[in-house]
Write a structure and sequence with these properties.
The complex is a heterodimer of chains A (158) and B (113). Chain A is of the alpha+beta class and 158 residues long. Chain A is built from 4 helices and 6 strands, in the order E-E-H-H-E-E-H-E-E-H. Chain A has helices at 33-47, 53-71, 118-125, 149-156, and strands at 19-20, 24-27, 79-87, 90-97, 128-134, 137-145. Chain B is built from 5 helices and 6 strands; from the N terminus they run E-E-H-E-E-H-E-H-H-E-H. Classes of the chains: A alpha+beta (158), B alpha/beta (113).
Chain lengths: 158, 113
């Protein structure tokens, strides 16, 4: 179940915090997905995500970028936008396009559907998923928290 | 250099499709074409070997599920070889492990046959 788009403000402030990457304007072409993943992976590594969080962060960003390329609308230069920022234990990414939000297909009960898993995966892998649907475009904001080191140490010791 | 390579290795009605690199929305159509080519050529039992795959996305998962449905219509089967824990974790989240037998090696597939 998707969170309801926020009532106000109408668009998100850019992510900010301990560090913020320069916005990546990515040509809205499927051949550019690798560049989007590299951008996300570098930020995840700088933030200090280990595995599996690093892979999960990149996976979720890839899904959001894929949706923007597949269903969204590029700007006049043919690009979509990505911005990543860290604040405390949260790494946040905004994926923006200039089109209306295309909601994921509802689960119609069809067994083994061929598509429609992207949003569910994003929600499962990230701690926060927000959709900012507004007339001038759509922003998907995803955030993932770093696990406390003390918790990880406990897991590592079994 | 392409980040995605497919190698087909078929004999009788069993085909192995070996996939390297990053299987995303860009690469998924090539994977689908490769699968369809094998099924159209008479393969009824398909093994997708993801041992060298570094990344898959939901589009690629959709291609695997589509292949499974098509093979089941003709009493065929689909198996996936995967050793990447991150990818296996994604398969578990979407319940792919309940639909498609997942193996650690091609030898495991042969033993299970």
């Amino acid at each position: 179940m998707l969170p309801a788009p926020p009532e106000a403000p109408r668009s998100p402030d850019p992510p900010s915090g301990d560090f913020a990457t320069p916005e990546l304007r990515l040509p809205a072409k499927r051949s550019e997905l690798q560049r989007g993943r590299e951008y996300a992976d570098q930020a995840a590594a700088s933030f200090g995500f280990g595995e599996p969080e690093r892979f999960q962060f990149v996976f979720a960003v890839n899904e959001a970028v894929t949706n923007a390329i597949r269903h969204g609308t590029a700007d006049q230069a043919g690009t979509i936008g990505l911005r990543i920022a860290a604040h405390g234990d949260r790494l946040t990414v905004d994926v923006c396009d200039c089109g209306p939000f295309v909601a994921p297909a509802a689960d119609d009960g069809t067994p083994m559907p061929d598509h429609g898993r992207g949003f569910a995966l994003m929600a499962k892998l990230m701690d926060e998923l927000e959709v900012w649907a507004r007339p001038e475009g759509t922003t998907i904001r995803l955030a993932k928290r770093r696990r406390a080191m003390s918790n990880r140490a406990k897991v590592d010791r079994g | 250099m392409s980040p995605f390579v497919i190698r087909d290795d078929s004999s009788d009605d069993i085909a192995v499709i070996e996939v390297d690199g990053y299987v995303d929305f860009d690469a998924a159509p090539a994977l689908k074409r490769s699968i369809v080519r094998q099924i159209d050529a008479g393969s009824r039992h398909l093994v997708i070997d993801l041992s060298a795959a570094e990344f898959i996305d939901s589009t690629a998962i959709g291609v695997l599920v589509g292949a499974l449905k098509r093979l089941q219509e003709s009493s065929g089967s689909l198996a996936v070889v995967c050793t990447n824990e991150n990818i296996l974790n994604i398969f578990e989240i979407v319940g792919l492990d309940d639909m498609i037998p997942l193996h650690r090696s091609r030898d495991d597939v042969a033993r299970a046959a």
